[in-house]
Design goal:
It is built from 22 helices and 15 strands. With about 625 residues, it is α+β, with helices and mostly antiparallel strands. A hairpin with a 7-residue loop joins strand 6 and strand 7. Helix 7 packs parallel to helix 9. The N terminus is likely disordered.
């Protein structure tokens, strides 16, 4: 008979293999996690009183949202079995990963800490490969180390000068950049604090060797580079706040005074680099501009939060139940789409599987009860981590995920949630209920409640806009990049362009070929397409407006790369031309004369202006068209 201590060691071995494999395979890592859990439950589990409070809290959260789903079964189109196996409730098993670590010895926990360092290095290595590799690593490996035609390609960022290498959005072997960003948030602080430990402690020992820390510094720098190009802005904020929690402000103030010149110089250098990146890197420009622009894909977040608040208003106490988020989202917009059908495409491609906000998601699913349990779950984590006297990379990583979860749903991401729970489990201790311990709850409550309150206030601010104010007909150049000048003329004013041009071309997003809602069968559009090109009645002699136009009617796929894993295809299905006169030039195109399509597509316009005379000043005329092109 095998002694029980061997089974304890086996649980530890599987736990370590889980931490190593999670950087390159979800299936394999989860298999090792399950084996570690089984070894613990079968051979080491003693009594229920040993179960961590965090585990019991998490279990109660998932059971509650399932009970709500049972209560609302008559309102749902899904079977109860489907809700158990395919909804948020199906993640309940992951909480079991909190248990094995409770049996690990101090020596085993130190070994786990070393494994976490190796996992961080592996994660960065795979990220560097994906940074330079022209195919998505996950699908490339699954397809037998070959690229199959039609597979989605990684997002191209830029070309490195001189060596002429392309660099791509780094996602490692994960499926999305947000997942990879979440894993970086968990593992980069581990490398950072290990480097700090080397410099704080080992310089005092004779056997200190710099070659043991230099590779870690190199990989940490690579990790920061990958995190920057990964563009997970929520994780940037989370890591910054997480590191703030670990700062000794008294020592930091002394250091700033002592090294003020160096710190100011470093800050100036970083600011200069960010300025140059903003000037010359389109991806960084987009990330910053989307924080302040209304008419971008960031509108999707507004559509989501409008649905979140609407559902919370309808079901504030009980919620909608596990697995019912998508249905309730669509039910919110069904009457709006009947009134404003031109919004169908934008709302239909908006992700409807989750609330893009961990707290709001569980609040919507389980009402006030689920919201309180969710807050208590994170309060336990933060209480444990904030009261750990040692350098605590677990605090930085966990808090980064918590903050990131106010912009995304990291709690629903298996690839992030499971390692988060595993890392946190290594820090769990029995709660001290003494008066002194209760006082220590105050910092945990503060760092929990303040960010959530700010995010809720910002969410309410975001949704103040009326749906019709969020719609815009976007313009593109011939190469499909944004046409900034043409965009300003759409329901706007004339714009001056370069005087040397003899013609100006741009594409204008039109309207859908069908009328539809989520519950309605698509109905082909029969009404003609209509737009007006406006030339001023009075015009200065040195100012030139176009005197002729050529209008393409273009047909374009409506579903983008993120939904059907393909790029929009488009083609010209009709061309008309004519002269332009002072005043309103109404251009009408009958769709009954155009080819018919069963699938919903876009009727777009390709507009080319011709200028007759070379004058000092040339203008793009304003275009007026209704939201539904009628």
């Amino acid at each position: 008979m095998i002694p029980k201590v061997h089974w304890r060691d086996l649980s530890f071995v599987f736990f370590g293999m889980f931490l190593i494999s999670l950087t390159f395979s979800v299936t394999i890592s989860q298999g090792f996690a399950i084996l570690s859990i089984l070894c613990y439950l079968l051979f080491q589990f003693r009594k229920f009183s040993d179960l961590p409070l965090l585990f019991l809290t998490g279990i109660s959260l998932y059971i509650w949202i399932l009970l709500v789903a049972v209560y609302r079964q008559n309102d749902s189109s899904m079977s109860l079995w489907y809700q158990i196996t395919h909804s948020e409730f199906s993640d309940i098993w992951m909480l079991l990963i909190l248990l094995p670590a409770q049996s690990f010895s101090h020596k085993q926990r130190k070994r786990i800490r070393t494994l976490l360092r190796y996992s961080a290095i592996l994660l960065i290595l795979f990220g560097l490969v994906s940074f330079l590799f022209p195919y998505r690593l996950s699908t490339y490996i699954m397809d037998g180390f070959a690229y199959l035609e039609g597979r989605r390609l990684p997002h191209l960022i830029a070309e490195i000068p001189i060596i002429r290498w392309n660099i791509y959005l780094p996602i490692g072997i994960q499926n999305t950049h947000l997942t990879y960003g979440g894993l970086l948030a968990l593992f980069l602080p581990i490398l950072f604090f290990d480097i700090l430990t080397f410099f704080r402690i080992r310089f005092s020992k004779l056997n200190f060797k710099l070659y043991t820390v230099y590779p870690m510094i190199l990989f940490f720098c690579f990790g920061i580079l990958l995190l920057f190009f990964n563009q997970s802005r929520s994780i940037w904020i989370g890591l910054f706040l997480g590191f703030c929690l670990t700062i000794d402000f008294k020592k930091a103030t002394k250091l700033i005074r002592k090294k003020s010149i160096m710190i100011v110089s470093l800050f100036a250098l970083i600011s200069l680099l960010l300025f140059l990146l903003f000037q010359y890197n389109w991806l960084f420009q987009r990330s910053i501009q989307q924080l302040f622009a209304k008419q971008t894909l960031e509108n999707q977040r507004i559509w989501i939060h409008k649905a979140n608040i609407a559902n919370l208003t309808k079901q504030p106490f009980v919620g909608v139940g596990s697995g019912n988020y998508k249905e309730t989202f669509e039910s919110v917009y069904e009457p709006i789409l009947s009134e404003m059908p031109y919004l169908f495409y934008e709302i239909s491609i908006t992700p409807k599987s989750h609330a893009h906000h961990d707290f709001l998601h569980f609040f919507v699913l389980g009402g006030v009860v689920a919201g309180i349990i969710f807050l208590f779950f994170w309060l336990i984590i933060l209480f444990h981590l904030l009261n750990d006297r040692k350098f605590n990379p677990s605090l930085v990583g966990a808090y980064a995920i918590f903050i990131g979860g106010l912009f995304q749903c990291y709690f629903l991401d298996d690839e992030v949630l499971l390692p988060l729970l595993a890392i946190v489990s290594l820090k769990l201790k029995k709660l001290d209920t003494s008066r002194l311990a209760v006082r220590k709850l105050i910092p945990a409550i503060f760092v929990l409640i303040v960010p959530i309150s700010v995010s809720i206030i910002y969410t309410i601010y975001m949704i103040r806009l009326h749906p019709k104010d969020l719609f815009v007909h976007r313009t593109r150049q011939a190469n499909n990049t944004l046409s900034i000048q043409a965009q300003k003329t759409i329901n706007g004013k004339p714009i001056e362009i370069e005087s040397e041009v003899e013609q100006f071309y741009f594409k204008l997003e039109g309207c859908l070929t069908h009328f539809s809602t989520f519950r309605q069968t698509p109905k082909a559009r029969m009404e003609p397409l209509l737009l007006n090109i406006l030339l001023p009645e009075e015009n200065s002699e040195d100012v030139s407006y176009p005197n002729r136009y050529e209008m393409e009617i273009r047909i374009r796929d409506t579903f983008d790369q993120d939904r059907f894993f393909k790029v929009h295809s488009e083609s010209v299905i009709g061309i008309s031309s004519g002269s332009l006169f002072k005043g309103r030039n109404e251009i009408q195109m009958k769709v009954t004369d155009l080819p018919r399509y069963e699938e919903i597509k876009f009727y777009d316009f390709g507009i080319r202006y011709y200028y007759e005379k070379k004058k000092e000043k040339k203008m793009l005329p304003a275009i007026h068209l209704n939201a539904n092109c009628d």
